[in-house]
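TetR/AcrR family transcriptional regulator: structure tokens wanted.
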Amino acid sequence: MSSAEKTGQPTDPQPRRRLSRQDRHRQLLDVAWQIARDEGTEALTLGRLSERAGVTKPVVYDHFETRPGLLAALYREFDARQTTVMDAALAASQPSLADRATVIATSYVDCVLLQGREIPGVIAALAGSPELERIKREYEAAFIEKCRIALSPFTGAGTIAAAGLWAMLGAAEALSYAAASGDITASEAKKELFETIVAMVARSMGGGTHPDHLRNTAGLASR
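Answer:
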């Protein structure tokens, strides 16, 4: 007879499993997203994260060190997911302006909607410090360069101006956040962003208007 049986104490046949560092990091990020979703980004502190995750503060500080470090980790994860989705869609798309513009518009809006309305709060918080703002600008520049490469084959001898690409990114953010907030539908956001992209490329060609074969493109609004 075991000592536990002798004393009448209950046994614990399955002791709590200690998470690996990678699994713990994944758990903390998942809980952080949940806090941002349920309570807002302002409530997302390392102390609150330790409470919701059921771990001690030193565990959380060991993974993120500071609140800006946590916000940066969330943004990096969002950007990595967006990059993966967009790269796969571009690789599978047809080499046409309509297809490439559809991929960019759809991928951007869908990734924001997949993450939910908490991502605008995280991105807004990134502007709170020079370091976070630098991280955001680096990822924005990489996204813009990816779009420039994908769309340049359709400009003829022209080039896409940097101002146009930054304007496209601003439209992508605003439309996606409006869709996440329910102010417009996802289909409306994608269609408007598609039109913005095609118009930008048309200006780069010197025409200033949409090519006739791209007018009233069907199917995008239903995706």
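Residues 113 and 177 are 8 Å apart (CA to CA). The longest helix spans residues 67-92.

Cheers.
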